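Team,

Forwarding the record for the chain on the shared tracking sheet. I've put the sequence and predicted structure together so nobody has to dig through attachments.
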Amino acid sequence: MELIALVLVPFPVGFFVRNRLAAFVTFLAVHSFVFTVQTLNELVEWIGGSGRAFGPYPRADQTEVFAYAVVNLVILLAGLGLVSLGGRLGARRRAKADGPVALEPSA
């Protein structure tokens, strides 16, 4: 779920939102919602007997929990990088569009 959000959300947010702080806050809000839903889903499946996420219930393997945290942190940092990249490219595009305009028709 987070990977889908990583592909779809951060670059366009950075590109189209002019205020960089607002772009980061927007991405963090979307990411926090997706992360919460994803984690809740994993916990419900784990409590229901699935050992896919954290090992057998109720004894979670701490290395798997740590790995889950690290992978999600890497996804968050990649998203923040994409917001920054989108912001830079959007600012560059807007700067080119704001350049001088020829008012006389060319012959």
